[in-house]
Design a protein that fits this description.
With 368 residues, this protein is an alpha/beta fold. The chain contains 10 helices and 16 strands. It starts with a strand and ends with a strand. Bound molecules: iron/sulfur cluster (SF4) (3 copies).
Length: 368
C-alpha cells in the first residue's frame, strides 16, 4: 500500500508553542526533515496538518483542523481529515488509511531534528501572560534554560506533565520526553488550587471522549476542582481525587489519559497544605479566593420582595417569592455582582466584614 506522511502541527497541548515556532522560524529545516523521513519510509505523498485559523505556509498539501494532544496519532489525523472528531487508535498492528494510503505521522520538532546539524529541544516557557520558545541542545539542564528565581511552582510538560518545586528544576534535562516540552512558572501570588482547577478544566476540554475513564474522569475531576476555590468542597474530596486518578491512569486508552492524572496527583502532593486550607478552613493562603468584600447579601429591611433580582442571577443563587424577603445562597453565589443593578431598592450590596443578621428561611416582607 502507498504511504502518506503527515507532519502534524496540531499535536501540541495549550502550554507548548513549539510547532508554530518551528513553522514560523525554521520552515526550511522542517521541510527537509519531513522529506528525509518520507524517503526513509518510502512515502509517496506528504501533507501538513495545521491548526484551524493559522495562516497558510504555502506548503505542497495543507489540511486544517483542531489542535489536540492526540493529533500525533495517525488514526486521529485520519478522523479529522474525514470530518470527524480526532480520536486515536493505538493497536500495534493497526494501519490508519486515508484515500487508499497508509498514514504515518511526525511532528515539526521531530522533522527539524532529522535535518538539523544538532539536535535541539524547543522549550516553551510560560510566565504570567507571556510565552516564549527557546531552542536548546539536548541534555541541557532546565535550570539553565529557565530563570525560576522567586517561583513557587513549576508545571513541566503541560497537560501531560507534572508539577515540581523550583529547586528540582536542575534534575530535569531537555530530551525526547514530554516534560521538557514546556515549563510554566507560577509566582508566590498564584493560588495552587485555582491553578489546578484551571488546568483540570483544560484537561477536560482536551479529552477526545473516546473512553469512559478519561471522558468521565476529566469531568468529575474538573467538577470537584471547580468547587474548591469557591468554598463548596466537601471533606473527603481530596481522598476521592487521589483514589480516582490512579484508576484513570490504568484504565485510559491512550497516553493522554494515562498521563494527565500526574498533573493532579503532583499538585495534591506538593501543595497539600493549600488544598487543606481551602477545604477545611475555607481560606486561601495566597489570598486569591474567599476575599473579604466578595460577599453579596440582600438587606432584609430594604427588600420589597418584588422578585426582579431572581432572573439577574445566572447561578440561580437568589431564592424568594413575591412579597417575601429574598435571600442569596452563599454556597451557590459566584460573586459576579450582576444582581446589584437589578434591584431598584438598592437592597443588594457587596458586604465587607462581619455580616449583619439575615433571615435563615423565607420571611414575609416587614416581618424580620
Ligand atoms: S484516554 Fe482520553 S484522549 Fe485518550 S482515547 Fe481515551 S478519551 Fe481519548
Ligand atoms: S432584593 Fe431587590 S430586586 Fe430582589 S426582591 Fe428584593 S427588592 Fe426586589
Ligand atoms: S453576585 Fe452574582 S452569583 Fe451572586 S447572587 Fe448576585 S448575580 Fe447571583
Amino acid at each position: 500500500m502507498e504511504k502518506l506522511l503527515v507532519c502534524s502541527c496540531a499535536a501540541n497541548d495549550p502550554y507548548s508553542l513549539s510547532s508554530a515556532y518551528l513553522l514560523d522560524n525554521e520552515l526550511d529545516t522542517v521541510k527537509a526533515g519531513v522529506k528525509k523521513y518520507a524517503d526513509m519510509i518510502g512515502a509517496s505523498d506528504i501533507m501538513y496538518f495545521l491548526v484551524e485559523g493559522s495562516k497558510s505556509y504555502g506548503l505542497e498539501k495543507e489540511a486544517f483542523g483542531q489542535a489536540s494532544p492526540v493529533m500525533d496519532n495517525p488514526y486521529a489525523i485520519v478522523q479529522q481529515l474525514k470530518g470527524n472528531l480526532p480520536r486515536p487508535m493505538i493497536q500495534d498492528d493497526y494501519v490508519a488509511e486515508y484515500e487508499g494510503k497508509a498514514v504515518y505521522v511526525l511532528t515539526p520538532e521531530v522533522a527539524y531534528n532529522l535535518a538539523a546539524p544538532e539536535k535541539k529541544k524547543f522549550v516553551t516557557i510560560n510566565k504570567g501572560d507571556k510565552a516564549e520558545v527557546k531552542a536548546v541542545p539536548y541534555g541541557t539542564k532546565l535550570s539553565e534554560v529557565v530563570d525560576a528565581a522567586g517561583a513557587k511552582a513549576i508545571l513541566l510538560g503541560g497537560l501531560k506533565g507534572q508539577f515540581i518545586l523550583p529547586a528540582k528544576l536542575g534534575e530535569y534535562t531537555t530530551g525526547d520526553d514530554i516534560l521538557s516540552g514546556s515549563v510554566t512558572i507560577y509566582g508566590p501570588e498564584a493560588c495552587m488550587v485555582v491553578t489546578t482547577a484551571d488546568l483540570m478544566n483544560k484537561t477536560w476540554m482536551n479529552s477526545c471522549n473516546k473512553c469512559v475513564l478519561c471522558r468521565d474522569g476529566t469531568y468529575q475531576v474538573k467538577s470537584i476542582m471547580d468547587d474548591m476555590p469557591v468554598g463548596k468542597s466537601k471533606a473527603g474530596d481530596i481522598d476521592l481525587l487521589k483514589d480516582i486518578a490512579p484508576l484513570i491512569k490504568i484504565g485510559s486508552y491512550c497516553p493522554y489519559g494515562q498521563n494527565w492524572p500526574n498533573t493532579l496527583l503532583s499538585a495534591l502532593e506538593l501543595f497539600a497544605d493549600e488544598f487543606d486550607a481551602h477545604i477545611k478552613k475555607k481560606s486561601c493562603p495566597a489570598g486569591v479566593c474567599f476575599q473579604a468584600g466578595a460577599t453579596y447579601i440582600i438587606l432584609p429591611d430594604k427588600c420589597t420582595g418584588c422578585g426582579d433580582c431572581v432572573d439577574a442571577c445566572d447561578y440561580t443563587a437568589i431564592e424568594g417569592k413575591k412579597k417575601f424577603i429574598h435571600m442569596i445562597d452563599q454556597q451557590m453565589c459566584e460573586h459576579c455582582g450582576e444582581c446589584v443593578d437589578s434591584c431598584d431598592e438598592e437592597a443588594i450590596v457587596k458586604w465587607e466584614g462581619k455580616l449583619p443578621k439575615l433571615p435563615k428561611k423565607l420571611t414575609k416582607v416587614g416581618k424580620f
